[in-house]
Design a protein that fits this description.
Low-confidence stretches: none
Distance between the termini: 15 Å
Number of helices: 4
Helix content: 55-70%
Mean pLDDT: 95
Largest sheet: none
Radius of gyration: 11 Å
């Protein structure tokens, strides 16, 4: 996964949340538009976890190959 892809994702999700879109909906939209299939699967899993009641932080934790501990 390239740093640029994570940077673009971060900007896009921040913009969507600041616009008032729910986190689950934002993740769904970004996953559907993601050309990197591996990252798309990660975002889909995170959305499912958040939708199931997990926090965003807890949902990204298992995906340390994509999201660093600093993230």
């Amino acid at each position: 996964m390239k740093d640029k892809e994570l940077t673009v994702f971060t900007r896009q999700i921040a913009t969507m949340i600041n616009a008032g879109l729910p986190l689950v909906q934002s993740l769904e939209v970004l996953a559907s538009q993601q050309p990197n299939k591996r990252f798309q699967k990660v975002l889909t899993k995170i959305r499912e976890d958040v939708e199931g009641g997990s926090t965003f932080a807890a949902s990204i934790k298992p995906h340390s190959a994509v999201f660093t501990s600093l993230y």
